Amino acid sequence: MSGRTVLTIVLAAGEGTRMRSSTPKVLHPVAGQSLLAHVLSGAPEGPDTALAVVIGPDQRVVADEATRHRADAETFVQRDRKGTAHAVLAARAALARGADHLIIAFGDTPLISAKTFERLRAALNEGATLAVLGFRAADPSGYGRLLVESGRLVAIREEADATPAEREVRLCNAGVMAFDGRKALSILERIGNANSKGEYYLTDAVTIVRDLGLEALVIETSEDEVRGINTKAQLAEAESVMQARLRNAAMEAGVTLVAPETIFLAADTSFGKDVTIEPFVVIGPGVSIADGAVIHSFSHVVQTSIGKNASVGPYARLRPGTSLGEGARIGNFVETKAATLEAGVKVNHLSYVGDAHVGASSNIGAGTITCNYDGFSKHRTEIGAGAFIGTNSSLVAPVKIGKGAYIGSGSVITRDVPDDAMAVERSQQTNREGGATRYRELKTRDKRPKGG
Ligand code: UD1
Ligand code: MG
After folding, report:
1. Residue 452 pLDDT > 80, yes or no?
2. Does 70 have pLDDT greater than 60?
3. Which of 54, 262, 331, 383 could bond to 348 as cystine, CB 3.0-4.6 Å?
């Protein structure tokens, strides 16, 4: 919308009591991202935009989440929760600065897209004073009903104030609205609280606009886009809608999802070309997967960068801070954390690599553990390029294994190993000739029935 300035106000001061959680409602995640972050990422962004988030008292965490996602977000505290119009006016200072367009969105409606905000703004550009986002609800109960007469929006009736006939209306208020920014403040200030709840309803703006002889209209969208979240069940529904979207977007971008319905992605997952993800994989936030990489079944990946043609799993767990170089291979029952594994590294079986740097082409044998924690603090393990760590080794950090070094199987390494050295830490093996035979004889004699 070139040339037009826009202020977006996101309402997030509600208590969210129906979530039955000590976490503020808008901080609950969908696809690895808070509800609030989803709303903010759809809101107009750029030089002609301003963003305000209205939060409740004692919701510093919500303010922090807002600024983490949008550095330009200004937060306003609504001290008493007296309704949606009252909440908007908590951001009066931002409103008073003026903008061509005012958008109001709810922090608990995360599936809304940037395109929908643009549709509302387009209606303003065509002369409407107020554009309300509506949808046809499968079950309208709880929503405000949009009352339309000869194609014009005349009122929004909250369920508690609706007549039985009005309750039959399926066209509902999604909560998102766009105002002509120059008129918004004077309209909002006229809203009273003469209703069954004694609250200042934002929805009353519609009749005020009509009474002023100005135009209010409805822009319709799908119910899936405007699902409001009040309960954990609705949170799960939103997750499922969002997952379907992310899977489709990934496949459209060329990612092979072998059984998409079993794969969970995050809102910020990024993919290169020709990536394959096998069934039952969970990708958490902060994951990038480069060209040609394959993630095998039952792997769980969070805050990790996966290099070109790398192979992960099956049954791998890549925890935050993992970085896999080109062609690296992580096999079954391997866990990594805060670990950089350079190109061509192999950790094929049953290992833990944490707080570590592993040089290119090193081979980490089955059952290798970086012992990074001494019960008090974490320590680092450095493994040089081309090293070979024998099976079932414990690398007690802090420790450095030199380039090209070789660690004998079963070693407990507590001291640094120089480049190209071979370190073996285990006791001498003893072979007793005929010992097994003698042992068996002894055991069989003991087992003869007594008194037989
Ligand atoms: C609201 C609408 C209803 C619409 C529905 C869509 C009003 C009066 N009603 O009802 O028409 O169909 O959303 O989901 O607007 N909030 C505050 N401060 C307050 C009250 C609310 O910040 O004092 C915030 C909440 O955090 C939430 C949003 O405003 O993000 C909506 O509030 P909520 O109480 O969920 O409104 P609904 O009853 O769902
Ligand atoms: Mg609601």
Report:
1. no
2. yes
3. 331
